Write a sequence for this structure.
């Protein structure tokens, strides 16, 4: 009995089980191609989620910058602080998501 990774949830499972106890992915009767397709599908889903989150983060940053540019609130007001905070938080969130995406794409299966 060896431990392998579930192609669906990537948790460690026994090589003899017919169904993953974590995600209930059925391994019995699946060909190698089916299992490989499932792994590719899961990786693509993760990639799509990261791209969506990074675009949301970029949109938040752009909206905050646009507010600062158009409204030009006075420094040391709460509007200025919130806009700058959102702009910085959005950019940090964008960078983190992009780094995660690079690591996901470099990960070999």
């Amino acid at each position: 009995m060896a431990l392998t990774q579930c192609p669906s949830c990537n948790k460690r499972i026994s090589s003899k089980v017919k169904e993953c106890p974590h995600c209930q992915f059925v391994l019995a009767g699946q060909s190698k191609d089916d299992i490989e397709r499932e792994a590719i599908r899961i990786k693509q889903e993760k990639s799509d989620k990261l791209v969506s989150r990074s675009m949301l983060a970029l949109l938040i940053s752009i909206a905050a910058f646009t507010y600062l540019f158009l409204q030009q609130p006075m420094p040391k007001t709460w509007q200025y602080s919130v806009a700058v905070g959102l702009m910085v938080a959005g950019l940090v969130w964008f960078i983190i998501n992009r780094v995660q995406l690079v690591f996901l794409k470099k990960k070999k299966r």
Remarks:
- Residues 35 and 99 are 27 Å apart (CA to CA).
- Helices lie at 32-71, 78-106.
- The chain has a mean pLDDT of 89.
